[in-house]
Amino acid sequence: MREIIVNELTQAFQEMAREIAHYLPRLIVMLIIVLIGWLIAYVLKLVARSLLRLTKFSKLSENAGATQLLHQAALPSSTELVSRFVFWVAWVGFVLLGVNVLGIAGLQEYISRFFLFLPRMFVALVILFFGLVAASFFSRAALLAAVNANYRSSRLLSTVVRVLIIVFAFSMVFEELGVAEQTMLIAFATVFGAAMLGLAIAFGLGGQDLARKFLEKRLVQHNKEEREDELSPL
Amino acid sequence: MAEETLLSDDFLRQLINVGEVDIVVGLATHNNAKTIEPVLGAIQSGALKCFPRERVAIINADGGSQDGTTELVAKASIDDLWRESKVYALRTLHSISVPYARTPDPSKALQTILAAADLLRAKACVLISPESTTIEPDWLQRLVRPVYHDNFDLVCPIYTRQKFEGALVRDLLYPATRSIYGYRIREPYGSEFAISGRLVTDFLGRGIGNEDWGKMGPEISITIMAVTAKYRVCQSFLGTKAPSPRGAHDVVSVMRRTAGALFSSLDSNFPVWSVISGSENVPTFGTATEVEPEGARINRRRLLEMFSTGVAQLEPVLRSILSSSSLSELQRIAALGINEFDYPAELWAKTIFEFVASYHKSIINRDHIIQALIPLYRGRSLTFLTENRNGSAQNLQHREESLCADFERLKPYLLEVWADRK
Lengths: 234, 422
Prior knowledge:
The complex is a heterodimer of chains A (234) and B (422). By secondary structure, chain A is an all-alpha fold. Chain A has a domain at 23-104. Helix content of chain A is 88%, strand content 0%. Chain A has helices at residues 2-54, 57-64, 66-72, 78-101, 107-148, 154-177, 181-206, 208-228. In chain A, α2 (57-64) crosses α5 and α4 (78-101) packs antiparallel against α5 (107-148). The longest helix of chain A has 53 residues, at 2-54. Chain B is built from 20 helices and 8 strands. With 422 residues, chain B is an alpha/beta fold. In chain B, strands 3-2-1-4-6-5-7-8 form an 8-stranded mixed β-sheet, sandwiched between helices. In chain B, β1 (23-29), α3 and β2 (56-62) form a beta-alpha-beta unit. Classes of the chains: A mainly alpha (234), B alpha/beta (422). The A-B interface holds A 59, 63, 137, 140-141, 143-148, 150, 152, 154-155, 224-234 and B 164-169, 189, 191, 243-244, 246-249, 251-252, 254-255, 258, 298-299, 302-303, 305-306, 309-310, 313-314, 317, 362, 364-365, 368, 371-372, 374-375, 378, 381, 384-385.
């Protein structure tokens, strides 16, 4: 009885030792990959940060209104955020490569999925960034045009332009990421459709006379009056 | 060569038929049938009367007129004038009309005229606005003579204006160009001016018309190029400037063509203007005439409303362009009533210099910076209007001089904000 127990234990230990001997080099390789990965990711972070500073990315992001959003959310600057993002993506990539070396069945599929997902995430981020740039540019253009035309609700117009473009950009981002694709599409169509329908009802049915007067005042008489009130500039 | 790309084969053929000339008179038109005939008449009379021995060609660059402007120019004959005036030119006066584009483009129009003048080896090229209904035959002589006889390279006009005409020139263009480039040129953006053949060649050779500031404001870019390249510049009193119909100018496009071009020119010319302090007079020909009484009535309350609304609504945009002290000062005056309203000259000069620096650093889109200046210009116009409502011509001149002095005094501030890395 005692011998059986000792034999079983010995076998188990031998098995464990074999397993450990089998996995140990892989584990060491994994750790080396993770460590080298960390170093490479860190270097990439520094390179990304320098490149972003050289290309004055923070200014671009400020123009896009992204800096303001980040500040409100108590997040670091856009340059810092992007360089951190580069670090984490690179390092997580190396960690997954390391884990892949261990040869754990089932994990490999998830790892390949992660790597396939990276380009989509990158595209989504690019869409988001340019969406914010476009929202900032067009809302400011609308604000300036409206103010210079002496339109009273300039800020409202500008905000509407900004919100519409941001909503549109986010719907594209979610579509790219494949997250709640249908929900986002329906939500976007509903919000956009509701806004347009609301305006149509408000102007078309609810206040035909008001709409006519409003448009006449804004587009015909008002421009003429306003121009006549300008001093001749040249 | 500029000619190769600017001039069509047909136009080149016409120019070759003309041969060399002494003077080119350029007319950049677009639907000017209503005013072109008296302008052409004055040019022809001026050529007959003042330059009977010189070879003169009228070059009309047209930007897609639909009202028969080009036909009127092509039909223009000096036979009637000969009969009427009994003055005979010893040379032929040629008149060529060329469509340079289907839509008006002032930069392309100017380049077409200058390229033609260059090809015809003209000693002087004079640009006349087709809207100058007050033009007299003598204008040609006043503009051309300093180039033709006194060896000047650029002759800028000085007009007699109604008191409240040319607000942008008085309040922004003149004081800003004077303080920045150091020359007292009253009309840096003239509707009429004359340039020498060598300046024409240099302007085309340097490709100024293809640079941002040349494209934005071709007229002011010639003045800026002439002063920065140390060409001989003078001014000539012309006469009464034709009053613009009220509301004829779109302030946004005018601001782009003038202030936009001026601001844009500062980047490449920094080594020239940054070392200039003060300003110097330029030789001036002719005598000034009295300022004409103002007939127009302007709604001051609306101007104030447009300024106040602009300052309030554009607060986030202005915050990125202006210093916090200037912005808070603007917000303070925006809250004032019509009778207390005052946009002081010093604050105006500081505002302009901060706009210039923001434009240089492209804090936001450059065109947006120019557009953001418009409500502030309206506020300054209101102060100009209030200050000079009952003032004499002398008071007006005194105030203009005082504004220019403020701009010159604050030039170091411009250099400071220009260099500021924030």
